[in-house]
Amino acid sequence: MSTEKIIKLIPKIKQGTVVKTAGKEYDIITATNERYHAFLPGKWRLKQDKVMHPITIGDQVLFHILKEGTGVIQKILPRKNIISRQANHAPHTSQLLAANIDQAFLVVSYLYPHTRVEFIDRILAYTHYWNIHTIIIFNKTDLLTAKEDQKMKSIIKIYQNLGYPTIAMHIFDQKKWTLLEKKSENKITLLIGHSGVGKSSIINAIAPTYKRATNHLNKKFHTGKHTTTHAAMLKIKKNSFLIDAPGIKNFILPTIPNYSDYFLEIKQYSLDCFYKNCQHKQEPKCAVRKAVQNKTIAYTRYQSYCHILAEKKESLQF
């Protein structure tokens, strides 16, 4: 039976979008802009043993109205995509971050705090798997020395050469805020990155009415502090939404087939490998390793791929 027929036959059943999560409780908004506070039945939660929380921001759900303003979720509708990661210290459990998004803003900083290129590569591989348009935002450029700025630009060039859109900016760059606002129009956009890279500041610039909390870095370790504790979808314009998710320290990729397919340049050169099932490690006549030696594939990208491959082989042993 279709969703439309269910809603017509059962008046107290409504469809809505999850816009906020807090543990086992969820805020849902309907197409007519009605807001409900809902929860999951306990037995339903227990069935979902491979995910920490089975519902995430952006999910389309059917829920049963209990009384005015509250409800109980009955069904998750099919997702067009899902952003998740392997839960820390739980290799067979996923942590959902967002669903049904149109694009991602991958917010990074060369320093204060430092974002490793492997973190960038892991996010890009996963968003490429789901065919999610991703813009890499190099934030806090005003804090860099001339030498540091040149090093950052050399990293940016790697991703530009692969066709990834990049934006270098800082909090005082009004033109870049306007550019991000324009790129957010008529889309659901997920902001993803470490704590402290400036995700909340970006939201405050694009949608100042929300006044998202910001925080200072840890002075000793130059790492960010969590200011966003619960994920939320924020409406900035009609049909335009930003998803503000808590900062991620490590991104352990969930299981996806053929990791090399989601490193664009590795996939391209792998077509010339002698062995069709080449993993680009020790095999002879490997076109990918040759391209790394010739510097047509960035060594940092190849290294990220190798680390992911080793990580997945290790997890299979448990």
Shape verdict: globular
Domain module count: 3
N-C termini distance = 41 Å
Number of DSSP strands? 13
* Biggest sheet descriptor: 6 strands, mixed
Count of separate DSSP helical elements: 9
Oligomer description: single chain
CATH fourth-tier homologous superfamily of the largest domain = P-loop containing nucleotide triphosphate hydrolases
- The third-level CATH topology of the largest domain is Rossmann fold
Mean pLDDT: 86
* Strand order, largest beta sheet: 10-9-8-11-13-12
Residue stretches low in confidence (pLDDT < 50, at least 5 long) are 217-226
Query: In CATH's first tier, which class of the largest domain applies?
Result: Alpha Beta
The amount of helix comes to 25-40%
> In sequence order, what are the helices and strands, one letter per element?
HEEEHEEEEEHEHEHEHEEHHH
Q: In the CATH classification, which architecture of the largest domain applies?
A: 3-Layer(aba) Sandwich
Strand percentage: 25-35%
Radius of gyration computed on alpha carbons: 21 Å
Which structural class fits the helix and strand makeup? Answer: alpha/beta
Task: Report on this structure.
It is a single chain. A six-stranded mixed sheet has the order 10-9-8-11-13-12, with helices on both faces. It has 318 residues and is α/β, with parallel strands linked by helices. It has three domains: 3-78, OB fold (Dihydrolipoamide Acetyltransferase, E2P) (Beta Barrel), CATH 2.40.50; 101-244, Rossmann fold; 259-315, Probable gtpase engc, domain 3 (Ribonucleotide Reductase Protein R1, domain 1, Orthogonal Bundle). The chain is globular. It is 29% helix and 25% strand. The model is unreliable at 217-226 (pLDDT under 50). The two termini are 41 Å apart.
